[in-house]
Amino acid sequence: MLKWGIDGDFGVLFSTAVSMPGDLAGRLKNKYSCDVVDWYSTTETGPIGYECRKKNGFHILPHDIYVEVIDKNNNPVEPGTKGEITVTGGRNPYLPMLRYRTGDFASIDNTPCPCGDHTPRLVGLSGRKPVLYIDGDGNPVNPVDIGRVLRTIPFLQHMMFQRTDKSFDIWIRPVTKDSRLNEDKIQEKLMLILGKKSIVRVHIDHELDVNMQTESFYDSEFGLFGD
Ligand SMILES: [Zn+2]
User: Fold this and answer.
1) What separation in Å is there between the alpha carbon of 38 and the centre of ligand 1?
2) How many angstroms does the Cα of residue 202 sit away from the middle of ligand 1?
3) Burial of residue 44 (number of CB atoms within 10 Å: 0-12, 13-18, 19+)
4) Residues of the chain with pLDDT > 90: what percent?
5) Starting at the edge strand that comes first in sequence, how are the strands of the sheet with 200-204 ordered?
6) What pLDDT sits at residue 63?
7) What does CATH list as the number for 133-221?
8) DSSP letter assigned to residue 78
């Protein structure tokens, strides 16, 4: 909006998708003479917190999501200790979450905030890095677009990786044991967005739900861990 010189009369501006640099917030505030509020939100949950007006972290807002900060062993850490943000609950009835790891890190502060809002805060928030695939021509591909292509195929579950040699592997778990899916057709659909130069291997796996929870599966397929 700043770049294009878009004018407007706003009560407040919200920024939700990625973390907002402070100087950008300041420039927007100057230009539009309104508050600029940065949200911490995830695709899976929607908004989780808003940035304190006194810059003391992000106040946790929703009452229907339970926010915890946990360590590597899934134990909640003490307030003030940094860990991974997890959420329990969720607004999508088809995506119930139980200590769902967001990939974002922060510490929790339960002490009353000088700004007057006494809700707990996420302090020192550092967001997950965006994960992008690279197509055959070296251009980035958003995983969301893979999801859009797969939407036309009936399946229960899938998992997709890109190897360091840039080739892709995708595992798909059909709806029932008797379901038949055509690997070639799926590969064709994926090549539409990954490009003709990409190597895509499609695996139909009726046991994917079990296999993806087994570390040996990843070791045998990738040597993935520790790399
Ligand atoms: Zn505050």
Assistant:
1) 13
2) 49
3) middle
4) 59
5) 157-162, 168-173, 200-204
6) 86
7) 3.30.300
8) P
**pTM across the whole model:** 0.66
Rounded distance from Cα 59 to ligand 1 centre (Å): 6
Q: Which CATH class is domain 12-126?
A: mainly beta
Fold identical between 12-126 and 133-221? no
The distance from CA 178 to its chain's CA centroid, rounded to whole angstroms, is 33
- Distant-in-sequence, close-in-space partners of 35: CB < 8 Å, separation ≥ 6: 12, 13, 29, 53
Non-local CB neighbours of 124 within 8 Å, separated by 6+ positions: 57, 82, 105, 106, 107
If 0-12 CB within 10 Å is exposed, 13-18 middle and 19+ buried, where does residue 59 land?
buried
pLDDT in the model for residue 225:
43
- Window from 17-31, 40-54, 174-188, 206-220 with minimum mean pLDDT: 206-220
What is the pLDDT, as a whole number, of residue 222? 59
User: What is the overall mean pLDDT for the chain?
Assistant: 88
pLDDT, one tens digit per residue, over 200-225 is 999 999 999 888 888 777 766 655 44
Nearby residues for ligand 1 (ion, Cβ within 5 Å) = 52, 56, 113, 115, 117
**Using CA atoms, how far apart are residues 20 and 80, in angstroms rounded to an integer?**
23
Q: Is the pLDDT of residue 62 over 90?
A: no
Q: In the chain, which ranges are continuous DSSP H helix? A: 22-32, 143-150, 183-194, 208-211, 215-221
Name the residue ranges covered by the structural domains of the chain: 12-126, 133-221
